[in-house]
Amino acid sequence: DFGRSSELAFVVEPSDDIAVQEQPLILYCQVEGIQPITITWRKNGVMIVDSENAFMLANGSLYVSRFQRLRGDGSSDEGEYDCMAQNHYGLVVSRKAKIQAATMSDFHIHPQNAVVEEGGVARFQCQIHGLPEPVILWHKNSMPVNTDNERYTLLPKGVLQITGLRAEDSGIFHCVATNIANVKFSREARLTVSGSHSTVYKDPMILVGPENLTLTVHQTAVLECIATGNPRPIVSWSRLDGRPIGVEGIQVLGTGNLMISDLTVQHSGIYVCAANKPGTRVRRTAQGSLVVQAPAEFVQHPQSISRPVGTTAIFTCVAQGEPPPQITWLRNGQILETSDHIKLKNNNSTLSIYGINQADEAIYQCLAENSAGSTQASARLTVLWADGLPSPPQGVRAETVSATTIQVSWEKPLQNTKEIIGYVLHIRKAADPVEMEYQEAVSKSTFQQLVTDLEPSTSYSFYIKAYTSRGASKASEVTVVSTLGEVPAMPSLFIKVINSTTVQATWEPSIKLGQHEGFKLYYRKVHLSQYTGPVLLASNVTAYNITHLDASVVYEVKLLAYNQHGDGNSTVRFVSLRETVERTAVLNPPCDCMKDEQNNKTSTTGIIIGIHIGVTCIIFCILFLMFGYRGRLLMCKNVQEQLSTPQIPRSQRSATGLVLNGATRRDRDDRDLNGKQLDMNELERLFPASPSQEQQEKGITSAHSLSAPHNETQISTLPLDEFSIIEEQPDPLPKNPHGSSAAAPALDHGPANEG
Fold first, then answer.
1. Closest CA relative to residue 411, chosen from 423, 419, 401, 399
2. What span, in angstroms and rounded, lies between the C-alpha atoms of 105 and 110?
3. Mean pLDDT over residues 601-608, rounded?
4. Torsion angle defined by CA atoms of residues 179, 184, 187 and 190, in that order, rounded to the nearest 10 degrees
5. Following DSSP, what letter does each residue of 659-728 receive, concatenated?
6. Contacts of 356 (CB under 8 A, 6+ apart)
7. What is the CATH number of domain 301-384?
8. Could you say which of 278, 451, 593, 749 is the most buried, measured as most Cβ atoms within 10 Å of its Cβ?
9. What DSSP element (H or E) covers 352?
């Protein structure tokens, strides 16, 4: 490796410039590196010969004594200039410098007369083209406009804005354009300020919105926006993409013009100017795009490298810019032509040189160019070659062993074999590019190598290098040989039973089959030795039906793929149709159509009868529940009436007697079968009445007396422990159908006393 000072490189390169007619021009070029160094200049790719008008200075710079945009012979000093430097190791070319003549055209836009009411906005504009960009100043009544007045705004593109007009602003205006080529004056325009300030409401309106601009980084952009309205609208700026405009380098000129200093690529975008009526959402907008270009610059420079003969050299050159730059490679100042061993990848950002030799030693340059500018970077490739390296291996032979294997053999070099530490076999498909090559290392005592895992029917190239600790020999002669063809692989086979005499063989196409011409299908009864077939099928066929089979035996089916190299291995399947026939008989018995029809009719009748029976049962159940519930209610009512003992007032007991179970005491005395007398005092002692009940006049009557005349009441004698006397509150006695009174049954009254 060499130090930085030994590399041939540019210290100063020529830059773009604008030259003045008939004035001298100097283009600078300074180079460092190992001497001797020769410097030459080119214009538009043609070598410049020293002459009285243009010659090279001692420091390598180019001097043009009198720059001419157009000479008498039709030639011009305008164009693209570059500087070339060369030494023993190579040649480098500088970036291209664009030289243009300073010019100025006539004004193509002049200011126009204007009549504006007081308090309004006036705008004058003049436009002119020139190189470099002319500086435009404004004069009022032949005197420079006072730029200290905040109401006067001068924009770089030749625009004058006057806001809040007053009577003293009236006058005659014109502009003056100046650059190194010339000075020019525009026509005059009169401004008239009329009347007083109007108070009539006016909607916001944008008089002039921003223009589309394309600038370069570090320049200044001015986006114009001037609005009118009453009340005076508020002007604001935003980006269409919603990103913030920021504050650094941002300035507002006048009442609404946006100025962005020191442009960067991030400033590119669409800018929106909005004029808002104060206190409302009424607004008007205008927009313009800003495109910021950036000259090409390197993110990663190529680095000088030293590599032994036969190895690979790789240079990397990464550049950025806006628009993205185009990368071009030079070799010793000439456009690099790609070949089998010189490749460009990754949009030309990577240069690879395979199997380098002495002829590849040179200076390689990376040129990055776009519409905003160009740049270059260089690197040197040094090819290491040591004395006493082995000569190339001899007698390289390659023999095909199989469809995937080749054996390569060779003999040791003729010279300088003592320091050999091993051999490297270089392998590549003959149709592949050089970068697809791979290597296999072999010991120094081995002179043959079995190369496996190759592809069938494919040509491969081989060459050998002998290696020492100081480097590699030159490559041996290249030998090319092809692998054998390969028979197809085994196909996948599936058997499907169609019916009792037919099966279907299906298989799937696969890339594993390789190149095949078709398929062969065989089948036989397993107890026989002879196959039926082969049935030859095309390569695109994937199914075949085997018919007229015997359902009582087992069959063997065999399928294989074949090509011009022979038959591949077969796939075998066994199939029996007997189980299929038996299963079909069980699942599908013979059809007795008359019986089935009769069964269908019977089934239909049975369904109808079943529905009627079901409905009838439901109706009977409902009726049973209804009548059963009603009978239970009546039964409960009778039981309550039988268990209830009605009472009569104590004052009536002597007259009517005590009623027990529907009979008066008098009746009971007359009809007592046992002749026993019931002592009233004993009853009162056994069943005393409560004092409260004695004070009330209550009648005790039998519930049974309601339904039978008094003289027909049946009297029954009960033991004392089988009856009770219950007194209840008197209720109104309803009239029975016969006109007699009856006591209502007692409800929810417990016994006053029980015995």
1. 423
2. 13
3. 65
4. 50
5. -BTTB-HHHHHHH-TT-PPPPHHHHHHHSPPPHHHHHS--B---GGGGTS-GGGPPP----GGG------
6. 307, 309, 310, 311, 312, 313, 381, 383
7. 2.60.40.10
8. 451
9. strand 350-353
Query: What is the architecture, at CATH level 2, of domain 494-577?
Result: Sandwich (2.60)
Instruction: Report DSSP state, residue 127.
Output: B
pLDDT digits (tens, 9 = 90+) for 297-332: 999 999 999 888 878 999 999 999 999 999 999 999
Q: How far apart are CA 278 and CA 262, in angstroms?
A: 33
Residues of the chain with CATH 2.60.40.10: 9-101, 104-198, 301-384, 393-482, 494-577
Of residues 381, 391, 335, the one with CA closest to residue 359: 381
Question: How would you write 20-78 as a 3-class SS string?
Answer: CCCCCEEECCEEECCCCCEEEEEECCEECCCCCCEEECCCCCEEECCCCCCCCCCCCCC
CA atoms within 13 A on the CB side of 445: 0
CA dist 63 and 97 (Å) reads 14
The b/e string for 619-638 (b: 16+ C-beta within 10 A; e otherwise) is eeeeeeeeeeeeeeeeeeee
| Contact (Cβ atoms closer than 8 angstroms) between residue 543 and residue 463 | no
CA angle 738–742–748, rounded 5-degree value? 145
Contact 444, 352 (CB under 8 A): no
| Residues ≥6 apart with Cβ < 8 Å to 749 | 726, 728, 729
pLDDT tens, 638-672? 544 544 444 444 444 433 333 333 334 444 444 44
In CATH, what number does 393-482 get? 2.60.40.10
Query: Read out DSSP for 99-117?
Result: EEE-EE---SB----EEEE
Which CATH number does 104-198 carry?
2.60.40.10
> Which tokens belong to 164?
């809040």
Residues in the chain: 755
> The pTM is what?
0.56
d(CA 344, CA 354): 11
CB neighbourhood size of 177 (10 A):
24
pLDDT band at 637 (very low <50, low <70, confident <90, very high): low
> In CATH, what number does 9-101 get?
2.60.40.10
Q: How many CB atoms lie within 10 A of CB 64?
A: 20
